[in-house]
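Retro notes (design track)

What went well: tokenization of the new backbones is finally stable.
What didn't: we kept losing track of which sequence belonged to which structure.
Fix going forward: every design gets posted as structure first, then sequence, in one message. First example under the new rule, 98 residues:
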């Protein structure tokens, strides 16, 4: 436990930031699942719309350094490739993370 006033304040700030960061990361994962679900069902239009939301949230999280910018780019790249593969008629990979 912190003893000084400043250490106690930092602990409060860190707890709030941790909750905020966890919520943002969870939203990104939820959006990713929505895109992948739309792709498995074959709904390309819905997948594209969900991908836009996913990309926006990933970029914002990267800008705030909640996630690494390269991770945001990697997520967008992999999901975009899957959306394009399904839109083009080629079967997308069923297994593995996006």
């Amino acid at each position: 436990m912190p003893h000084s006033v400043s250490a106690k304040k930092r602990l409060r700030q860190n707890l709030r930031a941790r909750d905020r960061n966890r919520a943002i990361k969870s939203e990104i994962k939820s959006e990713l699942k929505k895109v992948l679900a739309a792709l498995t069902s074959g709904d390309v239009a819905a997948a594209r719309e969900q991908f836009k939301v996913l990309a926006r949230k990933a970029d914002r999280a990267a800008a705030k350094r909640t996630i690494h910018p390269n991770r945001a780019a990697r997520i967008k790249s992999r999901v975009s490739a899957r959306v394009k593969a399904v839109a083009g008629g080629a079967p997308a990979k069923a297994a593995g993370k996006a």
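Added context from the reviewer: The first helix runs from residue 5 to 41.
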